[in-house]
Design a protein that fits this description.
474 residues, mainly beta, Immunoglobulin-like, 3 helices, binds calcium ion
Length: 474
């Protein structure tokens, strides 16, 4: 009898051991949403929504607007195992559509002091957009409680001097600011959320309705789900959806606060934070959703492409004749700073120099392809429309809003207050780019001593908006 019971126990142990390979989230440790249209109502925005992502892949959890986050864990640590397919260690599932991504940035933590609590160091998983100049590692937004039990616009301000509202709509009628009954730890008057931000690429594309373009790799709520078994992940370095789909994550993408890669053999905790502060027009704010996460199973027999090129998305229209491109090569998701890129275009007279500065001679539709030198099958293509009418010297001063060079007219220098990490270019009356600053901060003087006297068109590209203003050098 004892012997029989012993065998049964062994059998159960064997079953449990195989179950470890398909472990889902075992617990949610913290859920701090930003305000949003799905917050304070089921099934997406309550404490029970957080519990819904435990133990399965089809839960319903919304992080609200920018900065909202969730911290969860698995029953066993997630191993950074060399035999994991494509190096991928776990997969996060969301509810994206083919043309609708709401990217969340992912952080991992190892329980270094072994106390079972997430009180150690968070490391960001540096995804495909990490090195774009439009990305920030310290972007903070403060949300103010509009103080009502029904939907009201939620005012916000950020640490870059901007402010606005998260608008209430007439579909979701409850208050969008986290309610005290469900979220007692969130301050009643206002609270600040932050971390890393990336640029959302929202637009009216060639498909009906509004779109939010999918990021290349490394973000939650970004790629649609595939098919079971969920322990066999998508290859994050191909555009195609493979295996389980969802958003495959590699612990080897982890970087410290200085952006240096770190090597972790395993992790115990995961944090997902809405990385975009963006509106999708009538569909409301972009908000990362999570439906579950699963540990990847080791399988050394699975292989696939591991190199990828990413290009920062171009605006729908650029002003010729020069534009600063940003392109990066990754191998297994780690940046390859020395990798050479071959650029090509269907448009005559187009060239890209070693720093990524695009020069065009003609207006019109531009198709630009970056290929990895020596491996032309590894490529990325972007499109835009080039405008080069040369008429700006007449009266263009569009979108000039709060972007004002001062002094203007200028003699030896000017400043453009209130902007950060902006790409600033000075074009002369012939349309030539005479001065280019890749990452300008508004407080520093721009030396104009090298420029001839005359009128200049100054373009100020802050990623999410492009301003043009005339400046006279005397
Ligand atoms: Ca790995
Ligand atoms: Ca700990
Ligand atoms: Ca893929
Ligand atoms: Ca979503």
């Amino acid at each position: 009898m004892n012997r029989l019971r012993y065998s049964a126990t062994l059998l159960l142990l064997a079953i449990n051991f195989s179950m470890v390979k398909s472990q889902f989230i075992s617990g949610v440790l913290e859920y701090v949403p930003a305000p949003g249209q799905f917050i304070n109502s089921g099934p997406w925005g309550t404490p029970s929504s957080a519990a819904s992502i435990v133990g399965k892949a089809d839960g319903t959890l919304c992080l609200g607007s920018y900065g909202g986050y969730v911290v969860f864990r698995f029953g066993q640590p997630v191993e950074n195992h060399p035999d994991n397919p494509f190096g991928v260690d776990f997969t996060i599932f969301g509810n994206p559509l083919e043309h609708w991504s709401e990217p969340g940035v992912v952080w991992v933590m190892k329980d270094e002091n072994g106390n079972g609590s997430p009180d150690d160091t968070w490391y960001e998983l540096a995804g495909s957009d990490y090195h774009f100049s439009s990305s920030s590692r310290n972007y903070q937004v403060t949300y103010t409680n509009p103080g009502d039990s029904v939907a009201r616009d939620v005012p916000w301000s950020d640490n870059e001097g901007q402010s606005g509202i998260l608008p209430a709509n007439n579909v979701h009628l409850q208050t969008y600011y986290p309610h005290i009954d469900s979220f007692p730890s969130i301050p009643r008057v206002e609270y600040t959320l932050g971390g890393s931000s990336i640029e959302a690429v929202v637009g009216i594309g060639d498909v009906p309705g509004i779109t939010s373009r999918r990021r290349s790799f490394g973000y939650a709520d970004n790629q649609v789900r595939g098919s079971a078994p969920y322990t066999l992940p998508d290859n994050p370095y191909t555009v195609e959806l493979e295996n389980s789909g969802g958003d495959a994550m590699d612990i080897d993408w982890a970087v410290d606060s200085h952006g240096n890669y770190v090597t972790l053999d395993r992790i115990h905790f995961v944090k997902v934070q809405n990385a975009v502060h963006s509106s999708g027009g009538w569909v409301g704010e972009l908000s990362t959703e999570i439906t579950g996460a699963v540990d990847v199973a080791e399988d050394g027999s699975v292989t696939g492409e591991e190199e990828v090129i990413v290009i920062r998305d171009l605006p729908p229209e650029i002003e010729g004749p020069a534009f600063q491109l940003e392109a990066f090569v990754y191998n297994r998701g780690r940046l390859q700073p020395g990798a050479a890129i071959d650029w090509s275009s269907q448009m005559d007279g187009t060239s890209v120099d070693g720093s990524g500065l695009l020069t065009v001679q003609l207006p019109g539709e531009l198709v630009l392809t970056a290929a990895l030198a020596g491996r032309p099958e590894i490529r990325c293509t972007v499109t835009t429309r080039v405008r080069m009418d040369g008429t700006w010297a007449g009266a263009i001063e569009e979108n000039a809003g709060d972007v004002l060079p001062f002094p203007n007219p200028a003699h030896s220098y000017t400043k453009i207050a209130g902007v950060r990490r902006a790409a600033v270019s000075f074009y002369d009356a012939a349309g030539r780019c005479m001065l280019h600053l890749a990452a300008y901060d508004g407080e520093s003087p721009i030396d104009l001593k090298g420029l001839p006297k005359g009128w200049y068109l100054v373009t100020v590209d802050r990623g999410h908006r492009l301003d043009r203003v005339k400046l006279l050098k005397e």
